[in-house]
Specification:
alpha/beta, 8-stranded mixed sheet, 26% helix
Length: 255
């Protein structure tokens, strides 16, 4: 009898109690590159995951949701994206994981420093860079979009769990795809109204996708609420939402 493949151990965040399974990237990556970079007077740690492709790959850069999270919070995205040909850059927030400093400050500045480090890496197609921001990260991106674009203009922006209404989204001068949960209280404002406002402001195009039966961070709660202390949460990402993101980025990459 063949023994089942052992699963990597979960890492439990001592600050939040959340369990972050180690992503299983061996089959979908040719390299997992550890990257250290400076932000102010501290050194932060990130990781570039390159897909199994002999050519340079389009890059997806992640701007985190709120909380003292590490790169492992987006391990499920690394698995999905590298398996479909995208490189992905994730990093540990200040004061957590392998990053120095004290958690609780400078998140926008740290995201800019991480972006600067990400787009200079070998193995990525600098002309095909996407920014994927989630929740509070969408506000950070909107507030500092000109600074991100000065480093490298993104060919597209995906707003996961977007907090941006019609006024704030106008700051993002790039093609935009909005993905939000159907459980949001202001759903129309952050989806249809936001997309319409962006279309009125810019010629790039804006689309949106509403993830049914999901919670704010786009995990499926059709059957029961998410237990973030149980590593199986990582398997409950909303399939439709993530496929919507991949399809949209592929379309831009091919056109």
């Amino acid at each position: 009898m063949t023994k089942p493949e052992a699963q990597p151990p979960a890492r439990v965040d001592p600050l939040t109690g959340d369990a972050y399974p180690t992503p299983m990237l061996e089959l979908s990556t040719r390299e997992r590159r550890q990257v250290q970079f400076a932000s102010g007077d501290v050194t932060l740690a990130g990781e570039l995951d390159l897909p199994r492709s002999p050519e340079t790959a389009p890059l997806v850069f992640i701007i985190h949701h709120s909380g003292p999270v590490t790169r492992d919070a987006y391990g499920y995205l690394a698995e999905l994206l590298t398996s479909t040909g995208f490189a992905i850059f994730r990093f540990d927030k200040r004061g957590v994981g392998a990053s120095e400093g004290v958690y609780g400050c400078c998140e926008a500045e740290d995201a800019l420093a991480a972006y600067r480090a990400a787009v200079t890496q070998q193995g990525i197609d600098r002309g095909q860079v996407f920014i994927v921001a989630q929740s509070i990260g969408t506000e950070q991106l909107a507030a500092h979009f000109e600074e991100f674009a000065a480093i490298q203009p993104p060919v597209g922006v995906v707003l996961l769990s977007s907090l941006l209404g019609p006024e704030l989204i106008a700051a993002i001068a790039a093609p935009v795809h909005i993905i939000v949960s159907d459980s949001e209280s202001n759903l129309d404002a952050i989806s249809a109204q936001a997309a319409a406002a962006h279309q009125q402001q810019w010629p790039y195009g804006a689309t949106y996708y509403i993830a049914d039966h999901s919670e704010h961070t786009l995990f499926d709660i059709s059957d029961e609420p998410i237990d973030w202390s149980d590593p199986v949460w990582v398997q409950r990402y909303h399939r439709g939402a993530m496929q919507s993101m991949i399809d949209w980025m592929r379309n831009i990459n091919e056109n």
